[in-house]
């Protein structure tokens, strides 16, 4: 294995989610304690206009509840048990309000926040909590698969670093992607790490145009090294603490 490979910034995906129930306060605070560059979480809007940290659009997988977040109130959601599915010792852990996440963030902490909805209400709900908790904008990087959600945020609440998430269905060429990022006002792009253009030349082209490249979700040292050699700026992983400790020691 090649040694002395530059380590990109590490982002803890849904907190220390390999070991703990994802997107819960214990997982997020444990991740911050391990000192990655940032911790990532996902944010939805409830029926009563509250922001909730959860990945899926429902709780079938994590709580056995077949209801959509958008159709539930925050009070209904925050009594759910989203810990037991991971292990018995996590029974009773609940999905947090995003306000709880901001309250738990260290003063020097950073957060990658994925906007999970393309909803005009989001910006003002988010702004209210940022002001309540007195969180600096430079502590938050905002990511989303919804281009117009990022465009609205950049227009109506400017000052955040934003990055467009890409899965696998998009068909942008690199020049087309650069044009779209400029239209949206984004500072970077966040593709799945197996996209074919996660290679040195396309990454250099994006860098030359002024955009960061931030890949997800990488859980082995070998694949992380490949991304690093391509020149990516950050790696989102379910195993941030482990990867940080074992980067050159596999």
Mind explaining what this structure looks like?
The chain is of the alpha/beta class. The chain has a single domain (9-58, 70-78, 97-246), classed as Phosphatidylinositol (PI) phosphodiesterase (TIM Barrel). The protein is built from 10 helices and 11 strands. The chain has helices at 25-33, 60-63, 74-77, 98-104, 122-133, 147-156, 174-184, 200-208, 221-230, 240-246; strands at residues 9-12, 38-45, 51-53, 58-59, 65-68, 111-115, 140-144, 161-166, 188-191, 212-215, 234-237. The strands form 2 sheets. An 8-stranded parallel β-barrel has the order 1-2-6-7-8-9-10-11, surrounded by 5 helices. Strands 4-5 form a two-stranded antiparallel ribbon. β1 (9-12), α1 (25-33) and β2 form a beta-alpha-beta unit. The chain is globular. The N and C termini lie close together (8 Å). 40% of the residues are buried.
Largest sheet: 8 strands, parallel, barrel
* Secondary structure tally: strands: 11
Gap between N and C termini, in Å? 8 Å
CATH superfamily: Phosphatidylinositol (PI) phosphodiesterase
Question: What topology emerges from the helices and strands here?
Answer:
Layout: E1 9-12, H1 25-33, E2 38-45, E3 51-53, E4 58-59, H2 60-63, E5 65-68, H3 74-77, H4 98-104, E6 111-115, H5 122-133, E7 140-144, H6 147-156, E8 161-166, H7 174-184, E9 188-191, H8 200-208, E10 212-215, H9 221-230, E11 234-237, H10 240-246
Parallel strand pairs: 1-2, 1-11, 2-6, 6-7, 7-8, 8-9, 9-10, 10-11
Antiparallel strand pairs: 2-3, 4-5
């Amino acid at each position: 294995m090649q040694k002395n490979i530059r380590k990109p910034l590490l982002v803890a995906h849904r907190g220390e989610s390999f070991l703990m129930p994802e997107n819960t306060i214990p997982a997020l605070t444990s991740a911050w304690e391990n000192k990655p560059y940032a911790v990532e979480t996902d944010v939805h809007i409830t029926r009563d206009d509250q922001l909730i940290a959860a990945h899926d659009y429902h709780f079938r997988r994590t709580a056995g509840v077949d209801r959509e977040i958008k159709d539930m109130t925050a009070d209904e959601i925050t009594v759910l048990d989203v810990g037991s599915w991971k292990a018995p010792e996590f029974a009773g852990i609940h999905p947090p309000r995003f306000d709880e996440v901001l309250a738990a963030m260290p003063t020097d902490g950073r957060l990658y926040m994925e906007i999970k909805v393309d909803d005009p209400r989001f910006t003002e709900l988010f702004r209210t909590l940022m002001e309540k908790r007195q969180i600096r904008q430079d502590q938050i990087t905002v990511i989303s698969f919804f281009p117009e959600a990022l465009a609205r945020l950049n227009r109506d609440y400017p000052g955040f670093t934003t990055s467009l998430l890409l899965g696998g269905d998009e068909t942008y060429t690199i020049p087309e992607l650069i044009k779209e990022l400029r239209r949206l006002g984004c500072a970077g792009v966040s593709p799945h790490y197996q996209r074919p253009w996660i290679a040195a030349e396309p990454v250099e082209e994006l860098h030359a145009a002024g955009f960061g490249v931030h890949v997800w979700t990488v859980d082995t040292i070998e694949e992380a090294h490949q991304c690093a050699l391509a020149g990516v700026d950050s790696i989102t992983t379910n195993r941030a603490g482990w990867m940080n400790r074992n980067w050159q020691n596999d």
